[in-house]
Amino acid sequence: RGLAAMAGALRGARRAAVLGLRRGLAKAAGPRSTRELREAEEAAPVFQYVGKAAKRKDRVFVWGFCYSGALGVPSFVKPDVGWKKPRRIQPTPYRLETAEKISSAACGYGFTLLSSTTTDITKVWGMGLNKDSQLGFQRSRRDRTKGYEYVLEPSPIPLPLEKPQQTRVLQVSCGRAHSLILTDSEGVFTMGNNSYGQCGRKVVEDETYSESHLIHQLKEFDSRVVQVVCGQDHSLFRTEKGAVYACGWGADGQTGLGHYNITSVPTKLRGDIAGVNIIQVSSYGDCCLAVSDEGDVFGWGNSEYLQLASVTETTQVNVPRHLPFKIGKIKEAACGGTGNVVLTEEGNVFVWGYGILGKGPNLIETAVPEMIPPSLFGWSDFNPDIRVAHVRCGLSQFAALTNRGELFVWGKNLRGCLGTGRMEDQYFPWRVTVPGEVVDVACGVDHMVSMVKSFT
Amino acid sequence: LNAAPRRPPRQHVRFLPVPDGGDGGATGLVAARVPVLAEHPLVRGPRFRRLKIGAGHRLDVKASGVFVLGIGDGNKLLPALYNCHLTKVYTVGGLFGKATDDFSDTGKLVEKTTFDHVTREKLERILAVIQGTNHKALLMHSNIDMKTQEAYELAVKGLIRPMGKSPPIITAIRCLQFARPEFQLEIHCLHETQQYLRKIVHEIGLELKSSAVCTQVRRIRDGVFTLDDALLRTQWNLQSIQNAIGDCQLKVKTELEKTLG
C-alpha cells in the first residue's frame, strides 16, 4: 500500500511536472535576473544623434603662423580671456568658424582670402596683413577715416559689383601684396600693391597703397577668364579659349612676354603656348608652369634653381618653353619658390628644382623630374587603389591630396606651416591628421588653409 | 609520452666473477658487457613527470583563435619571437546600435542609438582615417630620426616598425562584411590586447555618431602561425602535437634569422 501510494504520488508529481512543462513549452523560464535584464534592455530608450538623411558638414581648418592674423582667430593674437596667452604658431589644424560654405581659399604672404559661391552680398572674406590694401579697405571702428593694417578675423570685402545678388565669385588668388578675385560674369577684380602693375592698371608714381579704396576691374580678355593665379609680384589669367594673359613684374621673365620689363595691362602670352589649349596655370614665386589639354607642360620665369634647366642654361626665361619630360600625360602642375611638382594621369607625383623635394635629405636639387614612390602616400598591397588626386605648392612646401581625402605635406617647416605638430622640416611626405576628408588645400609662405568635409 | 619506447640503456664493461663449478678457491673475473643499472626503467621511473609549457601572446577569455604555446625547450624561442615584433591579424565582429560598459555584447547596457544613417562608405572612410593615424604612430614610435636618408628608404619600403615597447598600433584595417547592423573587420596590429580591439569597435561607433559593441574577436594569425597550423580541440593528442611542432620548426627558424640576424 505504501509503495502504491508512493507510486501514485510520483505519478501525480510527474503529471504535475508534465503539466507544468506543457504550460511553459514556448520558453523555459531562465533565472529571473537575465530575463529582467533582457526586458530592461529592450525597454531602454533609443537615442538618435543624427538622422538618416544627415548631410556632411563643410569645414575650414587653418594652421601656421598666427601673429600676422592670417589664420583668422583673433584670440591667438589678442587673447579674449585673461588666462590665455598669445599663440605664435598653431602647429596642428584648428577649425575656423565661417559664415558660409567656403568654396575657394588662397594664402598670400601673411594674409588669406576665403570666398563662397553664394549670391548674398558678402562673398569674399579676408584676414591677415592689410598694409597694401590687399584685403580692400577695412574701415576701423575707432576712427571711421582710417583702415585696419592687420585684420584678425575673416572680414567681408566689399566688391563694386554691378549685380551683387546674381554674380558669383568663382576663385580667389593671393600674391605677396596683391589679390585677384574671379567672378563668373563681371571679370576679375584686383586689389593691393600695384607698384609693378600686378593689379592690371597703370602704375601711379608715389601711390600710397595702404587704406586705399581702389579696386580695379579687368574685363578685356579674348574670352571669359576661368582661372587667376598670383605669383609673387605678377598675375596670370587663363581664359576659356586656352590662352594665358600676364601682367606685373617681369625681371625674371615671369610675365613670359618676351621682355624683362614691367607690364601694367594684361597681355596675351605667345612662345611655345601660342595656339595651345592650356587647361591649368600655376605660380607662387617667380617661376610659372602651364599644362595643356594634351598633357604637356610649359614653363617660363625664374630658373635659378634648375626649374627650367632641362631646356636651357639661362637663369631667366621670358618666353614660355615646352618642357620635354617623358613621364606620361600630365594632369596638374604646381610651382613653388624653388621647386616644382607635377601630377600625371596615372596618379604619380614628380618633383624637381631645389630644396627639400620629398625624396629624403639626400635629394637637394635636380633638373629632371623624379618620382615620389606611391608607397609614401599610403599605397600598399593592402590598399592598391590609393591615388594622388591634387598637388599644391607653397613657397617652400608641397602638399598632396589623395582620393581618400588624406593630406600629405613635405618641405621646409617654416613657423609650423606644415601642420604636422612638429617644428622640424619634413623630408618625405607625411600625413596631416585632419578630422575630416580634405577636399582642397591652399598653401602660403608660413600658413595653410584647408577645406574639409566631415566624415558623417 | 611515457609509454613511448625509450632508447636502450647504455652498456658498460664490468668484470664479473665467473660462476665457478663449485671448486671454491680461485675465483676468476670475466669481462662482460652489461646494461648500466642506473638506467634501468624501474630505477629511473617515468621519463616525463612534468612538462614546461609557456604561452606566447595572450588571448583573453572572450576571444578565440590561434594561441601559440612553447613546450619544454621551445620556451627559449618565445622571447626571441616576441622581440621580432611581428603583426597579428584578427577578425573582429561588431554590432551597431548598442553601447555597453565593457565594449562587448555581454556587458551592461549603457545606451542604445539609431544606426540607419550608417553606410559602408562612411565606415570605410573612418577606417581609412584610423589607418592613417596609426601609420603615423608607427613611424613615430620606431625610434628612427625622420631626417635621415635611412628613414626615407625604410618608409618607402614600408619596413619601419617599432622594435621596442610601444602602445598598440594598427598597421592595417579593412571591412570584410557589412550587413547593417552587423559588420566584420580584419585588423592587423602590434602590441595590442583584445580589449583594445573592442575599444576600437566602440570608438568606430562613436565616430559614426551611433554606437557599436564587439561581438567576436578571433585571432587568425600570430606572426608566422596561421589558422592552418593551429590544432583544433579534437586534435589535442600527442601525434598531432608532434607533427605540428615538426612543421613549424623550419618556419620559426627562418623568421628568427631574418629578423634578428
UniProtKB/TrEMBL annotation, chain A:
Entries under InterPro entries matching the protein: Mitochondrial_GEF_domain (IPR053035), RCC1-like_dom (IPR058923), RCC1/BLIP-II (IPR009091), Reg_chr_condens (IPR000408)
Q: Which residues form a coiled coil?
A: none
Q: SUPFAM superfamilies given for it?
A: RCC1/BLIP-II
- Chief location of this protein? mitochondrion
Instruction: Give me the RCC repeat coordinates as residue ranges.
Output: 58-118, 122-185, 186-241, 242-294, 295-346, 405-454
Do the record's keywords include Mitochondrion? yes
Q: What is this protein called?
A: RCC1-like G exchanging factor-like protein
From TrEMBL, chain B:
Pfam families from the UniProt entry: TruB_N
Instruction: Give one GO molecular function term.
Output: RNA binding
**Where is the Pseudouridine synthase II N-terminal domain positioned along the sequence?**
50-193
Q: Which GO terms describe its biological process?
A: pseudouridine synthesis; RNA processing
Q: Supply the InterPro entries for this chain.
A: PsdUridine_synth_cat_dom_sf, PsdUridine_synth_N, Trub2
CDD domains cross-referenced by the UniProt entry: PseudoU_synth_hTruB2_like
What family does this chain come from, according to its entry? Belongs to the pseudouridine synthase TruB family.
**Protein known as:** TRUB2 synthase
Species, as recorded: Glareola pratincola (Collared pratincole)
